[in-house]
Amino acid sequence: MEFRNLCSLETFRDICSPSGYSENLEDVIKNEFTRIKGVTYLDHAGATLYPESAVREFCLDISKNVYGNPHSHNPSSTLTHDTVDRVRYRWDYNLILQHFNTTPEEYSVIFTSGSTAGLKLVSEAFPWSAPTATEPGSLFCYLTDNHTSVVGIRGPASAQGALPIPVSPSEVEGRARAGVEGVGGHDGPAACQTPHLFCYPAQSNFSGRKYPLGHVRGIRARRLYPACDHPGRWFVLLDAAAHVGCSPLDLQSCAADFVPLSFYKMFGFPTGLGALLVRNQAAARLKKCYFGGGTAAGYLAGEDYFVPTANVCDRFEDGSVSFLDIIEPHAFGLARYTHMLLSSLCHGNGHPVAQMYTQGQFDSPDTQGAILNFNLLDCRGHIIGYSQVDKLASLYNIHLRTGCFCNTGACQHFLDITDQEVKNNLKAGHVCGDSIDLVDGKPTGSVRVSFGYMSTFDDCQTFLSFVVDCFVEKPPRVDRVRLENLRQTKTGPCGNSSAVDTTLPKNPYTLTHIYIYPVKSCAAFEVCDWPLGASGLLFDRSWMVVNGHGVCLSQKREPRLCQILPRVELPLGQLSLSAPGMENLSVPLESAATLKTIQRVCQSKVCGDRVETVDSGDEAATWLSDFLGQPCRLIRQSPDSIRGGQKRLNTASTAVLSLVNEAQYLLINQASVDLIQEQIRNGQPLERQDLISRFRANLVIAGVEPFEEDSWSQLIIGNAQFLVGGRCGRCQMICVDQDTGAKSKAPLLALSACRSGKLTFGVYLSRQVQGDSPSARTLSVGSAVLHRTLDLSL
Length: 794
Prior knowledge:
Blueprint: H1 3-6, H2 9-16, H3 26-32, E1 40-41, H4 52-64, H5 75-89, H6 96-99, E2 107-112, H7 115-125, E3 139-143, H8 148-151, H9 154-159, E4 163-167, H10 169-174, E5 195-201, H11 215-220, E6 233-239, E7 258-262, H12 263-267, E8 274-279, H13 280-283, E9 296-300, E10 305-308, H14 312-316, H15 329-344, E11 345-346, E12 354-356, E13 371-376, H16 386-395, E14 398-399, E15 401-403, H17 408-415, H18 419-427, E16 438-439, E17 442-443, E18 446-450, H19 457-471, E19 477-478, H20 480-485, E20 509-516, E21 525-527, E22 529-533, E23 536-537, E24 543-547, E25 565-569, E26 574-578, E27 585-588, H21 592-598, E28 601-606, E29 609-615, H22 618-628, E30 632-637, E31 643-644, E32 656-657, E33 665-669, H23 670-679, H24 688-695, E34 699-702, E35 712-717, E36 720-729, H25 746-754, E37 760-768, E38 778-780, E39 784-789
Parallel strand pairs: 1-14, 3-4, 3-5, 5-6, 33-34
Antiparallel strand pairs: 2-8, 7-8, 9-10, 11-19, 12-13, 13-18, 15-18, 16-17, 20-21, 20-34, 20-39, 22-23, 22-38, 24-30, 25-26, 26-27, 28-29, 29-30, 31-32, 33-37, 35-36, 35-39, 36-37
Helix pairs in contact: 23-25
């Protein structure tokens, strides 16, 4: 079955019926979401999109009404107070309590800045108790598949004597015991009154798995684990933030004690407003230490005397509410269709394209939300790092999310990451939110796409076509048996990795080009021979251009930088700059002793490193500002500023860096460039020299097989010795034509095709300087290149 034939609306209806794609929503999408034309937005689990009418009505409302502080008593303040109360309480309006099928008699709405703020409020106000000689202490029990903000409750809980207990999803029912209902349960009489809190998500923000809402009653009645093993009064916090974006929540059938949520997850707007729904029976047990404006019935400034307001909402809303910041089968059908096709998609050699992370069957919106979580695999079964997927998706204007999604527990479970590996990765420099996606070939995170009510079938098509174009060995194939069985059978793990051929020739090679980039992100300066400095080629990336706020400019944001040609003229002792339509500018190459005495010293940042820099003066600033059309300055690395190599490179312990991103030198080979050139099609041929310039290497060699340099560990070029520090990860910079500044994604797509989605090309080098001779301090074009290959069999 051809994959393209499956990407049709007719096939979608046939596969997913009656899952529920609603074409009736197309008029809504056309009228309310005109701004996303050409954009494939697949991060609704992060934040859904707001309808444009909501913003228009909001602006109209605040432009016609005067809203004052609700704690005053003037007319504008009364309007605010009444409006907030109407949103909070009125049943005859389709508002908060009605939306969750409950009433003010059952629940109170406490406005917060978002779901996390609601969780923090519970963590601080819950009546935790430390163990005594006669009573056990409180327990804070949480599902391991919880958002970071829920797990964070254990800090305040532990500080007040409570014992944190992580609970795996299988333990809740797997360790349940019958016959304890009414004995120590939340609503029944009990000798032990120690308060305990159990927290779980209605829907996992990692995998989209929906947990039974019946757990609320089961925990409070002490039928389910861990409540069945511990007497006391059990309260339940149901994290509804991910669930309510596309699914209804009926608090009549699952009366959780605390329900935090964020409105931007539901409506896209406003982003600074959420709520904590508190069951009134549980509200009386909350203890609040801090009191802010509007929460006190009365207090004394000179004495520890404070009486809270009687109203629960007023008592917990510190200060003034952000009063100006006051839909499921459709989304699930799209998600299920995408899941089925992605799960059955294969490379031309028959190996699967994706490893899916889902629990159980993806066949019902009752058990699964509109979230897909996965990693892509190359044709040998090796995982493609999520940062590579993210970079290419951005080129296609596809908005998705990568990483661990603030859910370490689920990430560890699905990716089989041990606690020790998490700690080791952290020591190695990997932190949440960075781009280190693979450590020793093992993924540190994954890719997540999620759908909302304004998502369309075109979004599915665009995403699936993107995967095929960028990551699938042609021709794409579909596992028909797997596709037909997906309605009944669980998606399992994908194939094993295969070995890599590491046999390499050991003939000498030749250095063909030397480039230095005196000004970071500006044009290259080609030379035939050049001296080597302590941090790389002499004067390579010694200067950089910063904007009016002191932030370094790059071609990603200012492609015209490529038209600025710097030249280091050693005999004249100057740096010259030229650009179209501009007079040439000369900047003196001052000695280290005088540089800091004649110019202003300032602090700057390069790739997260703080570096001391020296301003190059007003003349250079004016020249750059005139050409780039914005306030700019030229700054140079201070001679006293020393940067070490990046942690993830093998050379980190010895290499001293200039203003480069990663390492002292970057090397590429022409054979690899030629292979990439052959991949570029669609009427966009690029000359070899054009491609070489886009990759912005210092050293270019000839006479090798494509990408052979990936396996090298050491190099000798002429008489200079180098260590290989790692591969160079590529981004949108290679899309910029280095002559004109025009952008084309053809080089990045060609690189992805050559490397099965891995966006790496070139290797980083650092020079071994110990005991070198004077002849080793210069590089010349035509020098022989010798290499040593890594032993990959260990």
